[in-house]
């Protein structure tokens, strides 16, 4: 009976070790964040300020009151300057380097449709 208990404990410990190793060594998934353009019919980005890690991807989603675009100051490679006319249309932007990235909707920047993404 005692050998049976020892084997059971050993098998449980082995499973815990295998699961722990799998969690530790599995590929890391980049955090996915979302920013909505024209949230709730307002000329805003929601959220207008976001903090992510280098390598993370942000999904930009067109909301209400189109057209909108997403232009990152001094970073045309991250910008989506084409106007999005359809609600729900989306695109992904991956930020590979740390820094502060100011962005705006060109047609509505005068109305304050601006934001910043902090990448650490």
Q: What does this 3D model show about the protein?
A:
It is elongated, with a radius of gyration of 22 Å. The strands form 2 sheets. Strands 3-9-8-5-6 form a 5-stranded mixed β-sheet, with no helix packed on it. It is 20% helix and 39% strand. It has one helix spanning 2-25, and strands at residues 32-37, 45-46, 49-52, 56-62, 68-72, 80-84, 90-95, 99-104, 114-119. With 120 residues, the protein is of the alpha+beta class.
Write out key terms for the chains shown.
single chain, 120 residues, alpha+beta, five-stranded mixed sheet, four-stranded mixed sheet, 9 strands, elongated
Report strand order across the widest sheet.
3-9-8-5-6
Radius of gyration: 22 Å
Number of E-state strands: 9
User: Helices and strands: which structural class?
Assistant: alpha+beta
User: With helices defined by DSSP (H or I, 4 residues minimum), what is the helix count?
Assistant: 1
Uncertain residue ranges: none
Distance between the termini: 56 Å
The share of residues in extended strands comes to 35-45%
**SSE order:** HEEEEEEEEE
What does the main sheet amount to? 5 strands, mixed
Helix content: 10-25%
Shape: elongated
What is the mean predicted local confidence, pLDDT?
86
